[in-house]
Amino acid sequence: MVPVPQPSHGMWSQAGEKTSTGKTDARGLKVMAIIFSDRREAGRQLAGELVRFAGRDDVIVLALPRGGVPVGYEVAQALKAPLDVFVVRKLGVPGHEELAMGAIAPSGVRVLNDEIVNGLAIPPHVIDAVAAKEEKELLRREHLYRDGRPPPQLNGRTIILVDDGLATGSTMRAGIKALRKNHAAHIVAAVPVGSPDTCDAMRADADEVVCATTPEPLLGVGRWYVDFSQTSDEEVRALLARSVPKPAASHKPAASEEELAGRASAGPAPGTRST
Fold it and tell me: From CA 224, how far away is CA 46, in angstroms rounded?
């Protein structure tokens, strides 16, 4: 069972506040690990680590649903960048589905966690069965979330791939591999919290890795959130709809006094009647 952090000296638990626990490093200095109130607040904190990408027209934020979408929404808002989803499905160990033995992504990408697969001696036919089931769910979610919108153009773009945390890294790694197939120019893996070892290892896959906080031991991503309740399909759809850019309104300059006077002297337009 993953321990749940309890408020103690030096911690705050009020909603909307950043909460921290402390540990001491080799120099005797206190190192703080953030506990986020929820995913939206975590996204706002993560955005502060990504300000160098703000306002660039080559940048797009892709969130891994479902939990990555509230995080990605706040990042996209802060950077003034478009937001979309990139559906990747974890391959859970049968009977222990929260333990990832790998992940699948669009373009037929499959990434396996060899340490888990070999350590538990999971046979190929079991992996194939889980992958087939998750492939159906991947397609269902793509259809549901995209709501008729075409997939974004990724060729030559800078992609900020966002999730709510990094534990084994299988899901993020599968996403990165699929983005390579889409010829992304630059891939940034970005999470509010992650395992130090996984964040370091991810640098072999992504062009940049941004982990806002890397507590050791991680003991599960959910530990570092006050509210880590499941993100619903409805919330994902709502955040995506809210992030769609509105067409620019047409603003006509106000008529000058001379123009108004000229219109009045010209009389009514053809086809109209004066009363």
Answer: 14
Q: Of 197, 94, 207, 116, whose CA–CA distance to 160 is shortest?
A: 207
Beta-bridge partners for 210: 190
**Nearest-CA neighbor of 62 among 176, 206, 230?**
176
Closest to 172 (Cα-Cα) out of 131, 152, 202: 202
- pLDDT confidence tier of residue 106, bands split at 50, 70 and 90: confident
CA distances from 36 to 19, 154, 164, 224 (A): 6, 31, 11, 6
pLDDT mean across residues, the chain: 82
Q: pLDDT tens digit string along 46-105?
A: 999 999 999 999 999 999 999 999 999 999 999 999 999 999 999 999 999 888 899 999
- pLDDT value of residue 273: 41
Cβ within 8 Å of residue 35, ≥6 positions away: 5, 11, 18, 19, 20, 21, 223, 224, 225, 226
C-alpha span between 149 and 63 (Å, rounded): 16
Instruction: Write down how long the chain is.
Output: 275
Bridge-based pairing of strands 30-35 and 158-162 is unpaired
User: One-letter amino acid identity for 109?
Assistant: V
